[in-house]
Amino acid sequence: MKYIEEVIEKVKNENPGEPEFLQAVKEVLESLEPIIAMNEEKYRSQKLLEKLVVPNNIVKFDVKWMDDNGVEQTNKGYRVQFNNAVGVYKGGLRLHPSVNLSILKFLAFEQCFKNALTGCPMGGGKGGSDFDPKGKSEAEVKRFCIAFMDKLYPHIGVGVDVPAGDIGVGGREIGFMAEEYKKQTGTLGGVLTGKPLSMGGSLCRTEATGYGLVYFAEEMLKKRHDSFEGKTVVVSGSGNVAIYAIEKCEQLGAKVVGCCDSSGWIFDKDGIDVALLKEIKEVKRERLSSYAAKRPSAEYHEGKGVYTIKCDIYMPCATQNELDLEGAKILVKNGCFAVCEGANMPTTREATEYLLANKVLFTPGKASNAGGVSCSYLEMVQNANNESWPFEKVDMKLKEIMVNIFHNVDEAAKEVGQEDNYVVGANIAGFKIIYDAMSKKGLL
Ligand code: NDP
Ligand code: 2IT
After folding, report:
1. Ligand 2: which atom is nearest the Cα of residue 344?
2. What are φ and ψ of residue 400, in 5° steps?
3. Burial of 252 (0-12, 13-18, 19+ CB in 10 A)
4. Which end of the chain has less Cβ packing within 10 Å, N or C?
């Protein structure tokens, strides 16, 4: 049996009931084939791949918090500290009822490669809880965040592990957690990123993942002497990543005609009104259906299906495995020529293979959504130096990082004779950095 197959088999046996984690590991390891094949025996004797797929630490705890009726509720809390060879554990916290160890391990594993690609010294981690923020009052969210941080704080710290936001966690939640961290330890510094500006947050962090996604895609289009100008785009999701991807696409001359939430999707033939979308999602925290109610050019449809809208470029920015084979086939049939992932692993393996086989340009989230964590790093640098940079400076650095990631990924794919396969390119480019760090630190 080939070394890669052996390790995949081992991961399957040792992590039963963890399909998302296995999916992420398989995709990465299989695309490392050209590199591993060159030195299979050396890597086998180093137990390299075994070391790459096992998290260093997993912290698990109960989170007890009081609801508005004075009843105590309990949720599960986690932090997966996957690999810190390249730098501190770094990655977001997710609050969603679907959160479990399979999902957090897949996210933390992917984060190691993503963070390596940024060129900034960060290892990978991820955490969160199965707490569902939907339908909770702000007071309940606050009590949950405080209780969560009461359990998490001994495990994180500047130079150790620096969490940030993810699904269900934005500036509001990070603010509550940061305040609690400070109460418990007496310091704050750069131990959490995505902080409100008044607590040392960075300008442009809110925009960073969505903007970064579009900068990455723009560079890919540039290579083909093309641009966003005049393109029709559909974005899935309507949260932090989606909103700022839509905003930047529109700034670059594209028309974004659709987006969704977990209840339904909208088609807006005149192009999405970002100010209205922000008002609904960021200020009022309402469902997307109220967008259509306020906008005559928009239709609202219940359920899944935003990918049925005809578009040139599709950007999945909601959650893992949201785009399946059926969706990919519809996109291709409708003439979509690029799928750029803003979410983490939003495209199933079958759908990815179908898109690649049909010559659709496909950018994997670990490369194209790296703008969020890159900007988190810029926030850490500002905090360490007691500085606060103007928006334009952060935005410019973010763009530089994304352009650089695109070229590194593009180059890595070319080097193994698979030009334009950015899945292979991203996994190989990330792997090389992690491998180098692990070997220089004597971890192999
Ligand atoms: P938000 O919580 O701000 O928004 C999530 C969006 O996705 C909402 O519209 C939500 O709809 C939808 N969604 C979430 N879960 C599901 C589901 N199971 N089915 C259908 N729709 C769903 O999260 P973010 O925008 O921050 O994150 C989106 C994705 O981007 C995630 O994969 C995240 O890991 C990734 N990401 C985030 C980064 C960041 O900096 N925030 C950085 C890099 C990647 P609803 O409100 O109805 O639940
Ligand atoms: O998936 C991701 O990269 C994030 N949720 C952002 C992580 C971070 O540390 O900013």
Report:
1. 1
2. -60, -45
3. middle
4. N
439 located within any domain: no
Q: Over the stretch 358-405, which tens digit does the pLDDT of each residue have?
A: 999 999 999 999 999 999 999 999 999 999 999 999 999 999 999 999
User: pLDDT per residue over 100-142, tens digit each?
Assistant: 999 999 999 999 999 999 999 999 999 999 999 999 999 999 9
374 pocket-lining for ligand 1 (C-beta < 6 Å): no
> Are residues 346 and 213 located together in one domain of the fold?
yes
Closest ligand relative to 369 C-alpha: 1
Q: Is 376 in the pocket of ligand 1 (CB under 6 A)?
A: no
Instruction: Name the residue with the closest Cα to ligand 2, atom 10.
Output: 373
Ligand 2 centroid–CA 372 distance in Å is 6
Q: Annotated catalytic, 248?
A: no
- Based on the domain organization, do 361 and 217 belong to the same domain? yes
Number of domains in the chain: 3
Give the tens place of pLDDT for each residue, 199-245. 999 999 999 999 999 999 999 999 999 999 999 999 999 999 999 99
Residue with tokens 């641009």: 227
Round to the nearest angstrom and report the end-to-end CA distance of the chain.
22
Atom 7 (ligand 1): residue with closest C-alpha? 318
Residue 375 belongs to some domain of the structure: no
* Residues 353 and 248 grouped into a single domain: yes
Tell me if 408 is assigned to some domain: no
Measured CA to CA, the distance from residue 342 to residue 336 in angstroms comes to 16
- Structural domain for 98, as ranges: 55-187
